[in-house]
Amino acid sequence: MPKDSGIGASSKRREDVRFLTGAGNYTDDINIRGQAYVHFLRSDVAHGKINGIDTNAAEAMPGVVRIFTGKDFEGIGGLPCGWQVTDRHGEVMQEPPHPVLAQGKVRHVGDPIAAVVADTAEQARDAVEAIEVDLEELPAVINMKEALKEGATKVHDDLTSNLCYDWGFVEENKGAVEEAIQNAAHVTTLELVNNRLVANPMEPRVAVGDFERGTGNSTLYTTSQNPHVIRLLMGAFVLGIPEHKLRVVAPDVGGGFGTKIFHYAEEAFCTFAAKAINRPVKWTSSRSEAFISDAHGRDHVTKIELALDADNNFTAVRTETHANMGAYLSTFAPSVPTWLHGVLMAGNYKTPNIYVNVKAVFTNTVPVDAYRGAGRPEATYQLERVIDKAARELGVDPIALRRQNFITEFPYDTPVAVTYDTGDYGATMDKLEEMADIAGFAERRRQSEAKGKLRGLGINCYIEACGIAPSNLVGQLGARAGLYESATVRVNATGGLVVMTGSHSHGQGHETAFPQVIAEMIGIDESMIEIVHGDTANTPMGMGTYGSRSLAVGGSAMVRAAEKVINKAKKIAAHLMEASDADIELKDGAFSVAGTDKSVAWGDVCLAAYVPHNYPLEDLEPGLEETAFYDPSNFTYPSGAYACEVEVDPDTGKVTIERMMAADDFGNVVNPMIVSGQVHGGLAQGIGQALLENCVYDENGQLLSASYMDYAMPRASDLPNFEVDHSCATPCTHNPLGVKGCGEAGAIGSPPSVVNAVIDALNSGGKDVPHIDMPMSPARVWAAMNRASATGHGTAEGRSLGGASG
Amino acid sequence: MTSVKMTVNGKSVSGEVEGRTLLVSFLREQAGLTGTHVGCDTSQCGACLVHVNGDAVKSCTMLALEAEGADVATIEGQANADGSLNVIQQAFQDHHGLQCGFCTPGMVMSAAALLKENPKPSESEIRNYLQGNICRCTGYHNIVKAVLAASGQDVGAIAAE
Ligand code: FES
Ligand code: FES
Q1: For the domain A484-630, what is the CATH code?
Q2: More exposed terminus of chain A, fewer Cβ within 10 Å: N or C?
Q3: Min distance B141 CA to chain A CA atoms (Å)
């Protein structure tokens, strides 16, 4: 019987009611009396020198309050980077300044040059058009390999080159890996592109800055996944506002997917300008602006080699990746191709020797940072593609090859520095084989062929590391922040609870799922529990929501705080019942004394805490409110097996997803309905990457895919129904809930299975195509098929670097 | 500035607008109905979808002045008279057809227009009709399921949860 409340129940989401009735409170719905509006003048060239800015005409336009340029920000901090990577030679990465408004140079299309603040948004926009900028266009570097050549144009004149870092991991393993590859019975090599993407949460970014003259307090309302992080970064590093004079509020946020983690110039601008003009200042991004100012994702170009012995055991993996950083270092950019990518290169396999090299490169493009999965999709994609290619080269079953190499004993220390606590990769593969009805595939293929279509089946596994922490470890790895989470549980006198969490919900349903945990712990109704999040003024310092960490880290903090509350409540109950607190049990919302029929209700204990007439005041403070900070001892390691079945039209190259299946191990699950929804959304983004989405620059650095006319977002008609399962559960061993995190799995696990399926389909039609880069558009698939028949080998395109070429 | 007057969710609303003011801006900024959202500037996403004289219209593609005298319905007017969720809204909640909620008002208004036109749409008819509404969160699976359920059809064929 499925439960109808508490942990494991598919409780309906309470937040839905406001979203379904138009009563949500998103940042753009916030208007403060007297507010002015800002519009940014952005660079329309990828690289240029600013010789002068003439704002005279613009200043005379109706409604203009003030025009800001880089000069107004001289002496003010730039946008900080939150992670420092040390390269393979022990040198720290090159870290260029990132000004709020351009200082002397622009470095990507969309780089903000000036900002007009006016009475209305329309007036601000009109006045921007009247600003004259004397901009001398310079040659731009877009292609990563070109950017690293001797004598290439430099994105930052003050840096020695466009190389941000050259990272080797684990450097000491390099020799052993080389040797294993030399001695291998078979080596499969694959070069591939992990295409550049734009996260595209449906709500564009918005910032409203406010300054209260009477108190000197600043407030920023912003579309953020982590308001405390923004308060710390913007307050301490950019504007010099102490945290106690700065409040950051992230109200209802319309999706994030990583891109709303980072601290952006527009947030700092609105906070700064509100004080400067003594009026609230609001910025609402248009979608077109979002394409050239939101951090992009992925954009890796990789060569991977997989070595196998004569029995098809994996003996070594070596990878070389070029990772695009864009023109500046976004908040967590350096960590994505390194610590979120390299440490996952063991995947689900017991490969003994692994070496990962990553060259991070500056180019004249929008900064690139974490997007759903961040580093882990890139790791999974290359590994699961090269394994599939190896299986094809060796003529062995791709599932059997994977199974043979699975890690089966836990805990498992990988050669890339992490320890997997639990997992059962055989179980998720068994489950997947059952869901995918692999036995019936031959018949389905026959039916497709009867219609003139090619049918392919692709499978893959994945592992991810999420619930990112512990702080002392990430500190050694270069993180400039802690990665704990916090919660305050405040019990009211009448027994209801408020949980103030540092996690933030922007679609994940915390307002529903978190109360399920507390309800289970105390045995009270979920409706007695309220979740408060998103406002630094009323929640404890938290690190926010990303990396599938909310329940694993934030939920664990909440459990710890609730445990403290329960322990104290037991003492109060013991006093009320004149028993020893060791004998008190809490069940179904009542405290009882073991072995007796004495009991006292939860509500009565809460009341006693706040009306302490009969109360052990000498031993216990009144009140019932506790805070906990939880810093996990390890990452969590969700894993799973995915399968995709496609049909390919051999005449047009069009790929249709016929079936998409996901068998995940998320450990314990609090709300299965929400978890399935998270997987669905991830699958759609993964399929989008595999078939549709591509962020494309031309060689001059113009963004060609700069609106929904050119950037192909997955639509309802592009996707199938999904079959998802999370019944294989090996609970995490080191957090109190045994949960692992589910937010990114779908986006990590699905791209390789889609590509594997297409390659399988083409090969079944006699086309010897070893690889096609994503997105597998009809044009690319058609070209691969036809070039394959002509030349016997085929990848659709030359390696598109820096997103260049379609 | 020109004055404009229309009926929104059964109430008369008027205001002064510029010629270029879009219907969506009028609804959000002047009528105070912020349930209608703006997700793009190329008429692609459908977050702004409302009904004008009974037809589904992306309110970012229409000038406020063009709606002079029109009967406009937005998400704020969709609940039942007693404030409870209507059949479509309830189906979205029951089947988890929303996550961040940003696309949701447009989705619900679009689904309502579909069901008026085609009371028992097939799964593929739903997917085709909703092409003009982008959702980045749900992968559409549960939206399709919610629309099927709202039309009184069996959703058993679509995987549980
Ligand atoms: S805002 Fe109207 S279609 Fe996107
Ligand atoms: S629910 Fe977030 S965009 Fe649809």
Answers
A1: 3.30.365.10
A2: N
A3: 6
